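Re-running UDP-N-acetylenolpyruvoylglucosamine reductase to confirm reproducibility after the cluster update. Everything else is unchanged from the original entry.
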Amino acid sequence: MPSSIALPRVLENYSIQSLNTFGIDVKARYFVEIRSIEQYHLILNSGTYSHVPHIFLGGGSNVLLTQDLNALVVKVAIDGIEVIKEDDQHVWVRAGAGVVWHDFVQYTVSHQWAGIENLSLIPGTVGAAPMQNIGAYGVEIKDTFDHLQAFNLSNYTLETFDTTACQFGYRESYFKHEGKGKYLIAYVCFKLNKVAEAQTSYGAIQEVLHAKSITHPSIQDVSNAVIEIRQSKLPDPKEIGNSGSFFKNPTLKVAQATELMEKYPNIPHYPVTGSSDIKFPAGWLIEQAGWKGFREGDAGVHAKQALVLVNYGQATGKQILALSEQIKQSILSKFGVALETEVNIL
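Result of re-run:
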């Protein structure tokens, strides 16, 4: 390891309110920002912080903090975007885990590399994207993912994971289950198309393009449409604390799905690729149960999108968690559907 790399400064009892998009004011017993794996390696070798858990933080956009953290919170700020390989049709682009996801998407769009433009304006960082297998408007990370490199916390080596090893599912991956707490994702590589084929099958995108009289959309047009849709539906975390979609859209087996559709003929539903299961929008269920726009103190459900729980200012993580539990119980009672949280609870 290069001797020129210095041990990064570790802060104590550090407020991470500005580092989570819910804006929850909790403190980390220890906090450090790392810009390379080598820096984190130095921290591990020092042994100074081995007596507490290490919690990794990217954009803080998919976490609900319910208490002060007796841990070393590691803000992953590994930067850089580079082309590592290309041919006539494809380009392999690698980004550091700390790169802001939307910035990465805009970088690829500006170079006319197609594949992730439908994922514009999703909050968070590149490193968090494969953990959640983030997706929107007909596209998921796994569609363009090539590989990632992750630091093994037990033997201090950098390992490579391909699509199979990542075990991608709906908002799921190996790193949320068997690999949880065992790795730090450092770099992610995507295989993108040089020959642009805009993905416009999602209805809302078609509506925006039609309204603008765009009949042959570029990937920039698609990105702009997605940004417009998201801004019209979702609150800006800089204005109202939130983490985007709080719940996963439930997928049901055919028998339960059929029963639900017979009882509620107007319920939206979608096929699940590679399965006979049927997906239902959690936001619709929550809205039908009367929660849309609900507010108790500073914890609430967004007035435009029922899938989004919000902090209007001084709500605690425990208050927002309690609201989410009330909603889950309500949906189970009314529809017989068990909602799962998409947000990580700490």
